[in-house]
Amino acid sequence: MIMGKEVRFLKDIFIKKVISDSFLLVSKDKKTAILNIINNEFHYILNSRIFKFLEWKEKLFFKNKNTIQGIEIYTGQFLWEFPLSSLGKWKNPYTDEEIDFQVRRLIGIYNNIFWVFLNAEGFIGLDIETGELKYRIPEYHQAIGKTSTSSYDHSKGFFRSDYLLNSEKGKILGLAVDVFIEIDLTQEPPFVTQYGLQEEFEKYNIKKANDTAGSYVVQDNLLYFYLAEKLKFGILDINTKEIIYISEPIAVGERDDSFTRLRDLKVSENKVYILDSNHTLHIFEREQH
User: Fold this and answer.
1) CA–CA distance, 103 with 84 (Å, rounded to integer)
2) By CB neighbour count within 10 A (0-12 exposed, 13-18 middle, 19+ buried), where does 252 fall?
3) Paired residues of 184 in beta bridges
4) Is the CB of residue 267 less than 8 Å from the CB of residue 224?
5) What is the share, in percent, of the chain residues with pLDDT greater than 90?
6) Residues facing 273 on adjacent strands
7) How far is the C-alpha of 170 from the C-alpha of 197, rounded, in Å?
8) Residues 212-246: pLDDT tens digits?
9) What is the pTM of this model?
10) Cβ-based neighbour number of residue 117 at 10 Å
């Protein structure tokens, strides 16, 4: 396959997202702009940079200071704003200080509801057209299975994790420590189940999965995760909630300036790519049955 090459010199810009073959969402001069790559013209749509955002149907939704906002992506026309202060305040358990809520992660849009994971007290769901608060989920509804975290998690709250939206199933999924979270968005109101995986990990002689990374990949009903300090990766069947595989420890070279650990995981077709703290990429291929 031959690929054509085109070179552009564009000073001091950071590409945030490819919108189409002709337009890029970029940061420039501490502002947010749409770059027309046909004529190299910038159209500024925001007077600030954005770091947490979601692009959907030619609209841009993002965190801006203590608000969540929506704008038209090509014109910058304002759509709506949701102030996080309207949620009240939460008490920091370590300092007892009452502070505003913050956005931990913009998850995705399902049935015109924009789902957001907060730094405390769970999830909110906003009407994507108006920004109106439709759902607030501060804790899970039921727990199934054992978890090593039950001794100190009395609040039924949510662990920090890179929760993701599975649009095909209509569910938000998350994995942290030995807990798998599933939020069923097809129910009204949405229903949250916490699955304890302690016994699943014990099948592989892992007594405490306290180093499960917050990032993971879901592909074909399988969730690929890694245990950063144990130097292993595993596969969870999200339908049966069974761990069907955990690897042997991966050989990682030690460094004086870094803890020995796994740092990232990616999946493509039947290959799993693991990056370690020694900048070594390990590639594993699943056996075909």
Assistant:
1) 9
2) middle
3) 171, 191
4) yes
5) 51
6) 266, 283
7) 22
8) 887 899 998 999 999 999 999 999 999 999 999 99
9) 0.86
10) 20
